[in-house]
Amino acid sequence: MNNPSLISCNAIIAGFIHNGLFEEAVLLFSELRLFGLKPTSVTMLSVIQGCVGLESVGMCGCIHGYVVKIGLDLNISVVNSVLYMYLSLGNLDIATDVFDKMASRDVISWTTMIGFLVRIEQASNAVKVFHRMRENGIDPDMVALVNLLTACSLLGDLMRGRLVHNQIVVAGFGSEITVVNSLITMYSKCGDLYFARRYEQNGDPREALRLLIRMRIEENFSPDPILLISSVTVCGQLAALELCKQFHAYIFGASFVSHNSVQNSLVGAYLKCGDVELAHKVFNEISCKTIVLWNAIISGYGINGKGEAAVALFRDMEKSGKEPDNVTYLNVLNAHSHSGLVDNGLMIFNQNDERKKKVRLRGEHCGCIVDMLSRAGFEEAESLRSNMRLKGLVKNQGVSLLDVTSCNFG
User: Is the pTM of this model over 0.85?
Assistant: First the structure.
């Protein structure tokens, strides 16, 4: 190839890696300078994969040095790959040094480190790294929580395992098959065969609630905020309104009303139970309202057919200084659709200034408008087509307007 572009070279290197041709990938990388091309982060991510495939300590060291030389040691994706590269070689000392010197770390950085420590059965160190991650304000993802469950299994730490289980319920990962299997393993290895069998048979929110009740009765301790969030979340999943009210009363009596995360879970639970009035009452008591909370309350009112109230909340959110996002507009349009407020819905759709609001309309927003118009007899179908063109939304040829998944950006 004469005078190849960097894009072409990156594509070829990635192709070599995909097909297991690691030596060819590294050789092509070494020739980039002959073409006068400077590698980017995309190039280095592929080359690092090649070094992992070659399992060459010397090559890994050279690539790491080159990453630092060209200033990509500040690119978190590249440094995460370097970290993974050393861990793949089993070199924990160098990997730890890379990890400690990272300018910033994301959840992938922490999860990579925790996962390796669990694999080599350094469970105590894995737990310590997890705590460091939380102290740094990083929320764990499903992979991190599964790794922590495995660490609890290795340590035989049932109490910690139960606390991790609570976090999993709060995060909404309880139904994932990987999580269910890890929970069964953890309870079995920690000696709680009863719950391991029960969870294996069911694996549903009811089991999570039974666990919380058992912990309360058998171990005689008062629920903390995490435990209460778990309990209230499960009540919402089961649409158990009376149980939600009981937990609400306990939260009030135990002076947990100042914990915004507990109050947030109550709002979500009441909305899932269909009691928007109680949800709104709790919502008003929360001092620091996040965009997620605003979206939840707007959605709850819309789903329950209270479109005008949902729109009023939307206006209140704007007045409070919160910037609407994609989810906000989706919820507002849904509220108009469920309540038959066609004119107002079209007005919001028309007035949305994407450059000002920094909101990019998607197929889901088109779907709400289509649904709203279809409920109203479809008189405004042509108006919708015009709006879609103005907003940069294109309908694929040969597809019905009702097939909203075909809406995409032109």
Answer: no
